[in-house]
Design brief:
The chain has one domain. It is 73% helix and 0% strand. It is built from nine helices and no strands. The longest helix is centred in the first third of the chain and has 28 residues. It is globular. InterPro entries: Ankyrin_rpt-contain_sf. Keywords: Membrane, Transmembrane, Transmembrane helix.
Length: 240
């Protein structure tokens, strides 16, 4: 873990943090494109429920969700699942680097690492049950469920570590990080950029939507994320 810490430490700068969060948000947006297209073509009013959005489910409930999707919905979910193989790595870096920038030790990489591994296990299990459908494999379905639970626990834990790293309010944490990252008297830009990142993180972790999914209020969050991505690109342009 210390070797990984020394490998990641040089990446803990404002440019990389903004870029990684931007790519994470963009990947999340791309994840929902096939499902949104299916929703439109099927004449549905809300996005269909997929396994990623279910906090806990039995094997029967998991297969019922796949059945309700129908053939076109499952095909859309397969396409979304492919894009979800990029997000765990992006979020691992996005959750790790702010802590490293604040001068924290290698142990703060552990939770993001567990999150990433469990997310990949969940994605592989989901891909498998989608590929063999309508055949069942209850063990793999439950593996997807429990991996998703572990993912959520450690993503939330790491998010809380980022948001409350100095045991004070969020604004203080942002100010400290901005000072640490400020090398060219651009602390105002750093402050805006990091506050924007945390705002997105908190929106995605809203009670109506878990950390890795958009949920029922997907359209609003996606629009905010898209606008935020434009802000990131604008900031990067100014800095460069």
């Amino acid at each position: 873990m210390k070797q990984l810490y020394h490998l990641l430490k040089p990446l803990a700068n404002i440019y990389m943090i903004i870029l990684l969060w931007s790519l994470s948000i963009l990947n999340l947006y791309v994840f929902y494109i096939p499902l949104k297209n299916y929703t439109t073509s099927a004449g549905l009013h809300t996005l269909p429920i997929v396994l990623d959005q279910m906090n806990y489910y039995t094997s029967d409930e998991g297969y019922q969700a796949l059945t309700r999707l129908g053939n076109d919905g499952r095909n859309a979910y397969r396409l979304s699942n492919y894009t979800d193989f990029i997000l765990p790595f992006l979020l691992f870096l996005s959750l790790s680097l702010p802590n490293l920038a604040l001068g924290k030790g290698s142990r703060y990489i552990i939770s993001p690492m567990i999150y990433m591994i469990s997310d990949y296990i969940e994605n592989i299990a989901e891909k498998y049950v989608l590929e063999i459908y309508p055949k069942r494999n209850d063990s793999i379905m439950m593996l997807a469920c429990y991996s998703g639970l572990i993912k959520m626990i450690f993503a939330t834990r790491t998010s809380n570590e980022n948001l409350h790293s100095h045991h004070t309010n969020i604004k203080k944490t942002i100010q400290v990080l901005a000072q640490v990252l400020d090398k060219d008297n651009l602390s105002v830009l750093h402050y805006i950029a990091y506050y924007n990142n945390l705002y997105i993180c908190r929106k995605l972790a809203d009670e109506n939507c878990d950390f890795n999914t958009v949920g029922n209020n997907g359209k609003t969050i996606i629009n905010e994320d898209t606008q935020s991505l434009l802000i990131y690109l604008f900031i990067i342009k100014i800095i460069s």
